[in-house]
């Protein structure tokens, strides 16, 4: 659960909030990777729990990127037209990450009850690729957009935090706010 107060949210610059979301998503992916490693080492979660953990991470990352594509990027492009190429590159990354998440979900859906080495190689390769693209994407996005977002004042984002700035499901405003 997010413990920040409403007043604290309004005082935190938008770029700083983006960094907090990225930290949270990185931690979620680390937890998923640990769960996958534990499963294949024979001491982890059963496949159904691992799939649920993957679904939770993938849903959070997709919500974040959908919110950026639908809300943040158009607002940034309007105020900073020189960043349109950067935003286009970030949208391309979002598509690649969606594809990688789909591959990982498919692999985890077919996990055997007992771990096997062939599946372990495939799953670890897929989660490694997802991690590499996500980390590179986040670093690029932070380098290009944090200061821009910190300079922006979008009252509707402060009053009703959009999907790209949410860090847990309890904050989720529903699809209409994305």
Automatic annotation (TrEMBL):
One protein family per Pfam? Hemerythrin
Checking CDD domains in the record gives: Hr-like
Q: Which Gene3D superfamilies does the record match to this protein?
A: nmb1532 protein domain like
List each copy of the Hemerythrin-like domain by range: 18-147
User: What is the name attached to this protein's record?
Assistant: Hemerythrin domain-containing protein
Taxonomic path: Bacteria, Bacillati, Actinomycetota, Actinomycetes, Streptosporangiales
